[in-house]
Structures are given as structure tokens and as C-alpha cells.
Specification:
Elements lengths: L1 H8 L38 E6 L8 E3 L2 E8 L2 E8 L5 E8 L17 E3 L2 E5 L4 E6 L5 E6 H5 L13 E3 L2 E8 L3 E7 L5 E5 L10 E5 L2 E7 L3 E6 L5 E6 L14 E3 L2 E6 L4 E8 L2 E8 L10 E3 L2 E6 L7 E6 L5 E4 L8 E6 L2 E6 L3 E8 L2 E9 L10 E3 L2 E5 L3 E6 L4
Antiparallel strand pairs: 1-32, 2-3, 3-4, 4-5, 6-7, 7-8, 8-9, 10-11, 11-12, 12-13, 14-15, 15-16, 16-17, 18-19, 19-20, 20-21, 22-23, 23-24, 24-25, 26-27, 27-28, 28-29, 30-31, 31-32
């Protein structure tokens, strides 16, 4: 009975309710489990607890057990730093050399958020260097050069997909040759357990879910969506879905609701809702109603909320019905520009790429702005992080910690 129950519920990752230990938070969907947050922001916005200038990075911080992992680049090194989450004071530091150069002139820092689990932290650098460090001390436990090991071709903006914990496995989107699109390592020893799929790497992080009673890994790769079994990497099916524009990326992650899977991309690609079936998959609807550039849409009560558009002047914040793809509302193009958001305590916290932080209620009836405050300069392409009532926001060179706790 216990084995059957675990199969139905899927693997439960033990985290503190107030932790944000990996990309998109404790449930991998941009939703915080915290409550009791203040919504009466004072004039000037929530109080600033601490602020720190950082090296180059597009990687969100991760927080667990009162410690924050900062992953950035200083000169010719990718640096992993552990800070006290409450005051920003340094605890330990680990670094290694990097020669990464962004071909489009963006910054040369890492893109993928660290992953913290079971006394270890995992980082995946812009050049494909994968490290497992002791969370308490920063001591390296194992490492791999993924690009060299699997013949990974250079991508447009380096590696941008975060590592994912699934049971005893650490799964990455490698985008390598010889069916190494996805690679699963033993998270303790670092040994390769399986590799699967011929999908090239994208900027969407793999998503694991229990679908039809079995754990699956969904990877929105360079060419589209692929579904594999989590235990052995067996490919269930693949669904081609990408822009006709060569210089384009799939970056927003899959959104899963039961046996339904939503994916969306910019560059005139649009969105599709698929149903996972016993013999594969089928389309429920396909439309250009939503085109997520990099920020994953958030699902609440059967509706998706997300940023639609490639360029700042054309981007809108939208609400669409998941089941049908019907648009319920959209903001005026360019009113907010591009941005990211999380949901917490019944409200949404949005950060635009121009550094404006907004607290809002979103529903099918429309958006309601509760408070707004500018904090950072362009570019802010990293979603907010919430842990222990503290909100961490950043651009490519600065990290700020704000106090959202209800006094």
C-alpha cells in the first residue's frame, strides 16, 4: 500500500516551507507557499535589508536554511558564494576559471540558478561546467565538463537551464550528441545513470511530474517538447514546437496540470496545450494567444497568467483560460514591458526588466495593482525569489533583499 501511495503522489522533495532552493521555487512553478506577507507597502516600497554589487550573472539566487547561494562571474572565474540570507554576509566561496564569451555581447556570467538539496548545492555554468558542492563548506564533491563529455555544440547564450532533483537523480538538459539531450546523474556520486533524447539544449529547465501514475521528465528543448520516464530515461514521445527563425530560443518551462501540458515560446511561435495519453499525446489546442519569451506562465484556478511578446514595446501581461486558450484580458502593449513574476499569499509580485517592482492581484476579471516601486536599472531578466518573508530581486550586476514580513 505504501509503495502504491508513493507512486501516486510521486517523489516528494523535503523542503522547508520558507525555502526557495531552486529555479522557480519549492514547487518549480513560481509559486511560494508562504503566507502572512504584508500588502500595505509603505511609501518608497518594502524596506531594504541589504544590497550587494555582484559580478556578471543572469542566475537567480537560491535560498535554503537561512543561506543564500549566489552564482556569478568575477573577472575570469565563475564564483559560487554562500551568504547569510538575512544580512548578506559571506560564509564561504568556491570558484573555477572560465573563458566564456557571449557571442551577442551580453554579459559573460552564468545563467542557471543553483539547486540546493540534502546538504549539497549544484551549479551549471555558462560553459557547461557542472559542480556538486558541500552546502555547509563549499567543498567540491564532484564535477563534470558536460560540454566536453557529450560533445555539446555552442549555444546562442551559453548554458541557461538549471539542474533538477528527481529522487536519487540530478537531471540536466545537456543538449549533447549521441542521445545526450537529457542526462541524469546519481546526485550523490555524480555517476551517469541514463541519457536520453536527441534534443538540443534550450533555456527552459526540465520539469518533473507524475502523469498517469508515473514520474516523467518534460524537456522543452531546442526543437520542441520531449517526455521521458524519470527512472530510466525511456522516451515516451516528442512534439516539435519551435520558431521558424533560426536565431530563436525556447526558454519558458512547461506548465503541467494533471495529464495536460502547456508550453509557450516567443519569436512568433505561440502556445499549445497537449494531453499525455496511454499511447503518446494529442493536441487540445494550439494558438498564438500567448508567446512567453523567457518567463514561465503561472497557473491558478484554471487560468494562466504570463508575459506575451518578444520586444518590450509589444509585450502584454495576459490571462488566458488553460482549457480553451481563450484570452480573458491583456494589458496595453508596452505598458509594463517584459518581465517576470511569482505568486505568493494570494497575490503576484512582478519585476519588469526596467526594475519596477509591482504587487498585484490577478484574476480572470482583470489585473489590480496594489503597490509599485522602482528599485533597479535595466536589465532585470531574473524572476524574484521569496524565502522567509524576504524578497530577493536583482539585475545583471546587483542583488537587493527586501523585507515583506508582516510586522
Amino acid at each position: 500500500m505504501l509503495a502504491g501511495l508513493l507512486l501516486v503522489l510521486g517523489f516528494v522533495q523535503p523542503t522547508r516551507a520558507a525555502d526557495w532552493p531552486w529555479f522557480l521555487g519549492p514547487t518549480h512553478d513560481g509559486v511560494s507557499t508562504e503566507t502572512g506577507l504584508r500588502d500595505d507597502w509603505p511609501e518608497g516600497g518594502p524596506p531594504k535589508l541589504w544590497e550587494r554589487k555582484t559580478g556578471e550573472t543572469y542566475a537567480a539566487p537560491s535560498v535554503a536554511g537561512g543561506k543564500l547561494i549566489l552564482f556569478h562571474r568575477l573577472e575570469d572565474a565563475e564564483v559560487v558564494e554562500c551568504l547569510d540570507a538575512a544580512d548578506g554576509k559571506p560564509i564561504w566561496r568556491f570558484d573555477y576559471p572560465t573563458a566564456y564569451v557571449d557571442r551577442y555581447g551580453y554579459n559573460g556570467g552564468p545563467r542557471a540558478a543553483p539547486t540546493i538539496f540534502d546538504g549539497r548545492t549544484y551549479t551549471y555554468g555558462a560553459e557547461g561546467k557542472l559542480h556538486c558542492l558541500d552546502f555547509a563548506t563549499g567543498k567540491p564533491l564532484w564535477r563534470h565538463d558536460v560540454k566536453q563529455a557529450f560533445g555539446v555544440p555552442d549555444n546562442f547564450f551559453g548554458v541557461g537551464s538549471a539542474p533538477v532533483i528527481e529522487g536519487k537523480l540530478l537531471i540536466i538538459a545537456a543538449g549533447g550528441a549521441d542521445d545526450a539531450g537529457l542526462v541524469a546523474y546519481d546526485r550523490v556520486t555524480g555517476k551517469v545513470v541514463w541519457k536520453a533524447s536527441d534534443q538540443g539544449a534550450s533555456y527552459a529547465t526540465p520539469y518533473c511530474a507524475t502523469i498517469l501514475g508515473k514520474r516523467r521528465v518534460l524537456h522543452f528543448g531546442r526543437e520542441g517538447l520531449v517526455c521521458v520516464d524519470a527512472d530510466d530515461g525511456k522516451v515516451n514521445w516528442s512534439y516539435p514546437f519551435r520558431s521558424r527563425v533560426y536565431e530563436s530560443v525556447n526558454a519558458a518551462g512547461p506548465v503541467v496540470d494533471g495529464d495536460r501540458i502547456f508550453v509557450s515560446a516567443s519569436y512568433r511561435t505561440g502556445a499549445v496545450l497537449l494531453r499525455h495519453t496511454d499511447d503518446g499525446h494529442r493536441e487540445i489546442w494550439k494558438s498564438r494567444v500567448m508567446g512567453n519569451h523567457w518567463a514561465t506562465s503561472i497557473l491558478e484556478d484554471g487560468h494562466l497568467y504570463g508575459f506575451d511578446g518578444r520586444h518590450e514595446n509589444e509585450t502584454t501581461l495576459k490571462c488566458i483560460e488553460l482549457a480553451t486558450g481563450e484570452q480573458k484580458w491583456a494589458t496595453r502593449p508596452g505598458a509594463l514591458g517584459r518581465g517576470s513574476m511569482i505568486r505568493a499569499d494570494g497575490k503576484y509580485i512582478l519585476l519588469t526588466e526596467r526594475g519596477i517592482l509591482t504587487l498585484a492581484r490577478l484574476s480572470p476579471a482583470g489585473p489590480e495593482s496594489l503597490a509599485q516601486q522602482p528599485y533597479l536599472k535595466y536589465p532585470c531578466w531574473i524572476a524574484p525569489v521569496l524565502a522567509d518573508g524576504r524578497l530577493y530581486i536583482r539585475n545583471d550586476r546587483r542583488l537587493i533583499c527586501l523585507d515583506l514580513r508582516n510586522k
